[in-house]
Fold:
Amino acid sequence: MSSPATPYVAPAPLEGAARTWGTIALSAATFMNVLDTSIANVSLPAIAGDLGVSPNQGTWVITSFAVANAIAVPLTGWLSQRFGQVRLFVGSVLLFVLASWLCGLAPSMSTLIALRALQGFVAGPMIPLSQSLLLASYPRALAGTAMAMWAMTTLVAPVMGPLLGGWITDNISWPWIFYINIPVGLLAAFGAWRIYASRESVVRKLPIDAMGLALLVVWIGSLQMMLDLGKEHDWFHSSLIVGLAVVFVIAFAVFLVWELTEKHPVVDLTLFKRRNFWTGTLATSVAYGLFFGNVVLMPLWLQQFMGYTATDAGMVTAPVGLLALIFSPIVGKTITKVDPRRYVTFAFLVFGLVLWMRSHFSTQADMLTILIPTLVQGLAMAFFFIPLTTITLSGIAPERIPAASGLSNFARITAGAMGTSIATTVWESRAALHHAQLSESVQFGSAATQSALQVYQAAGMTAEQALAQINRLVDQQAFMLAANDVFYASAALFMLLIPLVWLTRPQAPAAGAADAAAGAH
Structure:
């Protein structure tokens, strides 16, 4: 990174009301951004039905946002130096508001997916820059407190997302899950500009790695399209899927070579030479992919096969953040005194327990049975993100931490999109297998089948309607068993991640914490 002609002097921390209002403005923007990663989850069936596609095709609404967001995150460093951190942050918020408004007006699924991709792309710089501006607002001694407050915002949003999304979908209409961003975004942009405009960072012209960016877009786009379209086109029996796989492999290989030889790479791959970084990033990405895939799967299963409304599904999935809100400040204060590997191990054990509990769900499960694992999962979230970030960034020189933070976030967000596609694909595939196996037991010579047919026909159904009702019950059981398979496999994968965490070499806790706190400077 080149140095400016005149050394940059960081502005003094904010004080009093200015710091309070600045924190509120930054937190509101972060809240709005994170809210949009979860608010559409419980609304997918309604969006898909309104726009004439299947709910599983509707998952593109989530994955398009995540993929575009992941692509934009590595560009934050270059964009902030080209335009200034404050101008980029405020511009990002305003463009996010515009994209949200357009998403609500989308007349078709293809248009909505494109606009969600735009929304995700312009949102890319918001979270890294909110961290940076927030840390610059507080004295160094209060950096931990500032980041704990910021983390609380990112934990409240996933709680509110399903609740708001479900209530709005059932009582107003799904476009309003996007329209509610407009007043929040405008107020956040106005407040941030008023507080931080005079604290703009140095602007300099740096070369952009256009080829690296183009290759990044191509390989991520082709990989995500392959995962999303595979189940509809019979995977590698389709020339389209084969073509996407070939494009992905070639683009990814060329991307690796290019980025390792480029003077100003869009992604600094040399960071993966550090054991703490590659193990921490891999553990974070896989764990987040598993977590997010299951977060998307739960509302789909509840609404399609358990008879839940969007509001009810939101109430069941929302409490995931409650224990996280309670324990995150404790983790933040004690991370310098406890080996972060112990915290992460505890988090993965709890994630495994939660998913194992879910793998025993049945179609008779009541709301309380489904709610308890969700509530417990919040405990795992509190001990997951902060310690893993500390591990990932520990030992990295301060000037390389923005690049490291951007790369690890890029990997995490990409894994979240992939986790969504893989979870829903495996769910459908296993459901088809279970349906075939269960159908073998439904025979006209079977006493159970005849008894069921008589009961339905006695209720006024025709023979065809009675058979359709039995098929519906088989479907319900098949998708429940398939969801159990996904939950059980996810629990096993969380257990396998624990040894990976212990491959790291934690540095002195104070140093690791300082590095992590410096992550957004």
